[in-house]
Structures
1.
Amino acid sequence: MRGLQVSLNQTQKIRLQRSLEKLESLSSKTNRNASVTVADTIPVNYEDGVLKGHGTSELDGEVVATLCGVVERVNKLVYVRALRARYKPEIGDIIVGRVIEVAPKRWRLEINFSQDAVLMLSSMNLPDGIQRRRTALDELNMRSIFEENDVICAEVRGFQHDGSLHLQARSQKYGKLERGQLLTVPPYLVKRRKLHFHHIEQYGIDLILGCNGFIWVGEHVGAKDDMVVDQSSKSEQEDVKSTTYPTSLEEQERTYTPLETRQNICRTANAVRVLSTLGFKGEAEQRSLKKKKG
Amino acid sequence: MYPCFNFSSAVFEMGNTKVIAAVYGPREVRCEYSMANFSTGDRMRKPKGDRRSTEISLVIRQTMEACILTHLMPRSQIDIFVQVLQADGGTRSACINAATLALADAGIPMRDLVTSCSAGYLNSTALLDLNYVEDSAGGPDVTVGILPKSDKVTLLQMDAKLPMDTFENVMQLAIEGCKAVATYIREVLLENTKQLEYRRGV
């Protein structure tokens, strides 16, 4: 934490110091000094029948950590929860990722995992919202849905037999994210919760905390069903007056983000950046609190 | 160790030698097939061409491969970039120590922390961690890398001849040096882990 470069004024420094001390005293109460580093022996009280989980291995009959982290015990299972490791997906996690490749029938996404994730064309809702078989035509039109470098929100579907990670986006809340900022924080700072989509009403912005440590701060998007209707009616209009001038103006209006919203996006994003640089866990309540202070 | 999000880095100083290491990954293998691709950017005392850095990167790569549990990360690669910022002898061992520190910080599963130290023999005395002046005196220079937990040697380099009994002394000294480095690295890592954990909150 030495590389911290946040300029604070005196009161902010004192407040930070106080909260750090408070956190330390809290954690020393609850934590039984469970931190280990690589090759530390993990003391096991009952020698027989210990299940060795992630981040552990056996050496000369002792359980030894292979990661730096915190020892967790669940009944007989002993594992090490790594802190600054890459994201480890679990089924049902909501993640934010970036498309890096459009491949046959699938998109490849960078999600801060040791491999790229795969989003199959068949495991996402088409923009027209109709459930049907995906045809070759749909495959050809894949770039009209997501292109390279688009930011997408999706859900972890599971691992395939070959170890690759598959995603799905079968709901209206998933899909392309536009008009906002993508932030990356260490994944251990994002806690798995029931709610990962936050709409901060007073600022008119959306905050999506991806479990993989990618955080999206963007303009609030209303119910997407309306958009679908909008688009279809718009396309009809476009068919009618495709060569006339007003269409482009209309288009501009649709993609226009008010200055105030943009400022709010930036402020929220900066708050997230500061929190993650300080190594604080990201939770929506904390975020809104911090913003009020700032 | 410095916080950064898509890679881990560490600065390691041994006397006047200062090395920075960055670890990227494990990440998807994009266009080339290789289990681990290590490289060294080295600001050299003498511009000897690329051969020296190729050799050192090979050494670091082999030493690190011995301790990384690669079978846990299929189809991915780890990149280690090591840059010598200040060289005063023992750059090789400093590079290995910096790389170990960065790997441990990156949360890459490892069998043990590899630590390395050099030792030499001058004026009928064994010397630990030679600096530039001692190194350029032309005496034998032994670089040793060990796994301190299991007492296994993963690296041993010597470019001179030494009598057997002298070598044993020098080797013993180097191993002790490695263990001292290991103790220090362990302390730093533990302190860092604790900091991260308590800042994360309950």
2.
Amino acid sequence: MAVLGEITLKTRRARSRPDLLLILGVAALSALGLLMIYTVTAPRNEAGGLDPAGDMVRQAFFMATGVVVFSVGSFISDRRWKALSPYAYLATVLLLLVVLTPLGTLRSGAQRWIPLGPIDLQPSEFAKPAMILVLAALLSATEGARVGWARIGQAVALMAVPSALIFVQPDLGTMLTFGFITLVMLFVAGAGVRQIALLLVGALIAVAIAFQMDILKEYQLDRLTGFLNSGEAELTLNYNQTQSQIAIASGGLFGRGLSQGTQTNGAFVPAQRTDFIFTAVAEQLGFAGSALVLALFALVVWRLLMTAAAARDRFGYLLGVGTAAMVVFHVFVNVGMTQRLMPVTGLPLPFMSYGGSFYLAMALGLGMVHSVWLRRSPVPGERFLL
Amino acid sequence: MNRAWRLVAVGAVFASLFTVLVLRLWYLQVSTLASALEVAEQQQIRVVAIEAPRGDIYDRTGTVLLAGTVASRRLVIDRKLVPEEREEALINHLAALLGMPASDIRSRFDEAGEGARFPLGEEISESVAVFVLEHIEDFPGIVVEPVPVRVYPQGETAAHVLGYIGAPADEDLERPGITVRDRVGRFGIEKEYDGLLRGTSGRITYRVNAGGQVLGIIDEVVPRAGGTAITNIDFALQEFVERALYDGISLSRRDGKEPVRAAAVVLDPRDGSVLALASVPAFDPSLFSTGRISDEEWARLQETAALNNFAIQGLYPPASAFKVVPYTLALEEEIYPTIEQEQYADRLDPNDPTSFYADGDLKFPNTPLLRDWKVHGLVNIHSSLQVSSDNYYWGIALEVWNRAGLDWSENLLQNWARSMGFGMATGIDLPFEQAGIVPDREWFQYHQINKTGLVRLDGAWSGGDLMNMAIGQGAMVCTPLQLANAYAALVNGGTLWRPRVVAELRDSADRTIFTNVPSVVSLVDIQPETVASLRADLHGVVASDKGTAYAAFRDFGESLSQVGGKTGTAQIRLPYDELVIDQAAVPSWREAELIANLAVLLGESVVEIRAQFEAAGDGATFTLAAQVTEATADFVEERPEDFPGVTVQSIPEVDTAWFVGVAPLDNPQYVVAVVIEEGGSGGKIAAPTARAILQYLMGEEVQAIRGGEDTD
């Protein structure tokens, strides 16, 4: 009895211990992000007679809110999250519809924001964790080793509704994120390699048909091709990437030092505090600094995958992998874009890019996964895997 | 296990993605560092060209400013510095400030593109600039940039000499250092001396940020100002000449003519200096400085071709004013007319080989009978010029023609004309000068074979053509400047100068950087006696009571003894008659009869005549599309009962009036050529105009321009 009691105590402590590595990794990235936002925005704010730290303070406020969201997310049990998934999904779709009404605002040719007093809410960001949540709930209902075509159809249908709404905004980056997350989650849920391949082919054919049959209206096509590096947009997009590449390359091995980068100080890189924040790291801190950032992201992804491996059920397992996929996809597309490996799609860098909605959405996603971590089982037999 | 390998696979894929990013990072940051630094360095440099101040243009005294440069300012928009959300407000502010529609400004923004830097419009007033600078927070991204603006303080005076500046033409862009953003001389002195006037632009190399904000100056090259041009133009004279030309045009209008324009040249025959060069109507060169020329102004300038300098670009038959050339030829070569003189042998002066009886017409084979404008009776080489006898100069041409190939070349007259500068550009320092035409057999054949429309298509070059040329008609054309320059060469003893508008250019330290030295085009071998004779006979034109400009120069003043000149009346169109039909006056039952009568009379088909009636419409008055002979006109007028409603309308001739004056005759200092296009008779219209200019030059009291005698 005594022995049993000891074991119970031990497991309780192990269960409730937070994932310090994950939290440390995210905290380090966020702190670095704040620093970079300051170096990027301070010269311009100063020139404009504004508070040099204005942007940084705003972002710090978002981060503080993010901490609360993460904690609340961790506090809610994974079972409760699973139960909440249909409501989260419906709320997301509703918000995405609201964006397209006159309540949403149009900016830079895209309608993505709902103005809420001092801040603008970007529902498509919150759609990402919501999507992962609902897919995890759906796919965990399958208990066999394989996923049937019916289940795949349901998953695709669930993904299609918000995708269509986002497509109209338009926000190609988020659509691609949905696609990537869905594919990865289907794969780990047990879908066959052939099924995955067929899905990919189907997606390509659907896109081709959409182009062929003029289902896309003229202006939609313009918006879409705008993202695909053609027409008038090409110049600006190319300009962004050229400047970005120069900034990265100027960094060298150890960088030019904080606030010493001419590309950053001279504001040569457009959207540097948001989509191109990585260039600030690369120029000022060099290869060493940027590699560190990538390493921190790898740490976060590793912790998310470890959570998946340690999850007590299929839902937690899928939630962990889906969130990891979301982080990886953003990091790869964003950093790849600054390096001219990927086209400009407007996906921000997690935890570092300036912006509230995305940071909070990320905090929410990580909070849910952390909830799974806190409720994992130390006993191998009680885990979904192993 | 099945589940585990899938997680491991995903992990491996994720790891490989991270590996790709790190490898790419290494490649960009470590392998290609040097070239990237260079690119980064270059784009942080902005080179700003500083336009050199364009040189001023002065009159001959160096005190009257004809063209200068003032500093103005314009608004430049740097869109990189305009926050996107403030753009709409900025456009509204600008629209209110500049009084432009916001949509116009919006389209300028769209044209320029995102992140562009572009000027908004041209000049702005100082008050607007001050307002912008004081409220700069309402105008983000707006820069007030200084720009030089070319001004012409004398308005239209000497406009064609000065020219104007504008956007560079294709050929200007081939010159070194000229870009599409520059403004270059497009006409007049501004074009001819553009290279010297514009100076050398400087440049400042700045270190800038992406917003274009200057962080520091790296290098500075000071611009070198353009040279100041001193012209030979006597500004007061130029003003006077232009006024006189307008007065001449008014005189011609009062005479019932419809003059189109007028031009004048005043040369110094001693060295080819151009004292005045005018073409009216003119234009205001400032219109082009700002590039803001309204459509109405442009249409007006196009309608009168006011942008052309007719003093050097207008080609006119010199008419009788050309007679000084065969006159000189006759005296130098001792060729005098003998044609049709047998019947008048008893009337001729046996002691004067130049004696000739001008009976008013001359018949040449295969040519219509030539009629002089007047029967002059007994003349000789001297009086023939004074009274402007066509007969006499036809006679000289026939002598040349009949003995060509034996004693001299067929082109004797042409060679004399060319030696005095006809048929080739004078080389004046102004662009777009015309060369004129001196017709000869070769020229005639070329144009006949190529059917250029300049010559008739049947028959060869003939003595009749040469006779026509001798009186400055036919295909013979020249510019007013050419004619003035030829007279200058004749009265100065045979030196053909290259006319010069600009005397010299000086730099800002008053050092001469360019001198337009007098240069001789050719020396014509003329006896001093011939020159003296010509001067005397030119005087006879204005002073002898038979002279064609006698009436115009009456009451000239005391210095009349020092003045000479020659009239010219170039036939642009001969008079003719035409039939006007008032259909309202034709009883409808007689229309068919009338049409039949007209068909018989004009030798045309009934169908064609009827078509003209129908084209005019019922009851309309219209002109029958055919010139009719005098005999036909008389026939119609004598039989009103056969031609009801038909009247004869006489269309008067159209002539271009010339006068070339010389003064003072003892030592000529001025040659004045005046042409009034389609202005009428030279003696009646051009001579009084030139008389006023000569009075001004000779210090006489200038009298109002009034009509002279209707002469050739």
